[in-house]
UniProtKB/TrEMBL annotation:
Pfam families: 2OG-FeII_Oxy_2. Keywords: Dioxygenase, Iron, Metal-binding, Oxidoreductase. The lineage of its organism: Bacteria, Pseudomonadati, Pseudomonadota, Alphaproteobacteria, Hyphomicrobiales. GO terms for molecular function: broad specificity oxidative DNA demethylase activity; ferrous iron binding; oxidative RNA demethylase activity. It comes from Amorphus orientalis. Its cofactor is Fe(2+). GO terms for biological process: oxidative RNA demethylation. Binds 1 Fe(2+) ion per subunit. 2-oxoglutarate binds at N102, L103, Y104, R187, I188, N189, L190, T191, L192, R193. InterPro entries: Alkb, AlkB-like, AlkB-like_sf, Oxoglu/Fe-dep_dioxygenase_dom. Fe cation binds at H113, D115, H169. SUPFAM superfamilies: Clavaminate synthase-like (SSF51197). Substrate binds at W55, Y62, R63, Y64, D117, R143. Its EC number is 1.14.11.33. This is Alkylated DNA repair protein (DNA oxidative demethylase).
Length: 198
């Protein structure tokens, strides 16, 4: 079992506390629109990061870097309740280096992809969903392997490790209006990652 699902790991009060933590992150690291390498085509998801390293994508490629691509400021720290979650579920003796914050409005999709920009795959990716439910798709380690669909609801945590660390995955759609957590609606996904070997 290399995908561990923790349904409603964060109850409503803790979800609200996480949203407040993220408000402070967004003040210091505003959302930006990532762009596809080479084409420069914008993603429909908006994003930012916290932690010593953040994932960015622009016309030059995908990479991790220590500063915001538009303000040039270092990323803010990862909120303590997310560090606590990581240490509880990740099963590695080191902390996360990157927390990617993805914001999905209605109609936003994320195509099937692998996460392989990290320099180590030894640690799992830990994902937290907040707000509207997403229809998530996960397959195998080749693009043609069979896929299955799962719903990710507000407060759910999933840990992708072992064989599934390199599984293809994406977001097919967002179920608008399924949660009242975020005042403007939509969905936030947080992914905690180790980037460098340990
Ligand atoms: C399975 N994010 O940021 S979270 C991403 O909902 C990303 O924002 C999606 O894919 C989102 O790269 C999916 C679930 C997830 C995250 C990372 C994984 C599933 C994963 C890495 C390996 C396998
Ligand atoms: Fe991904």
């Amino acid at each position: 079992m290399t995908v561990q699902i923790l349904p409603e790991r964060f109850k409503t009060e803790d979800q609200r506390a996480l949203v407040a933590d993220l408000g402070a992150v967004l003040e210091r690291a505003p959302l930006f629109v990532p762009r596809m390498p080479r084409s420069g085509k914008p993603f429909s998801v908006r994003m930012t990061n916290c932690g010593p390293l953040g994932w960015v994508s622009d016309i030059d490629g995908y990479r991790y870097q220590p500063h915001h691509p538009e303000t040039g400021a270092p990323w803010p720290e990862i909120p303590q309740r997310l560090l606590d979650l990581w240490h509880e579920v990740a099963g590695v003796p080191v902390g996360p280096e990157a927390c990617l914050v993805n914001l999905y409005g209605p109609g936003t999709k994320l195509g099937l992809h692998q996460d392989r920009d990290e320099r180590t795959f030894e640690a799992p990716v830990v994902s937290v969903s907040l707000g509207d439910t997403a229809v998530f798709r996960i397959g195998g380690t080749t693009r043609k392997a069979a896929t299955r669909s799962m719903r990710l609801a507000s407060g759910d945590v999933i840990v992708f490790g072992g064989d599934d660390r390199l599984a293809y995955h994406g977001i097919d759609r967002i179920l608008s209006g399924s949660s009242s957590l975020l005042p403007e609606g939509g969905r936030i996904n947080l992914t905690l990652r180790r980037v460098t070997p340990f």
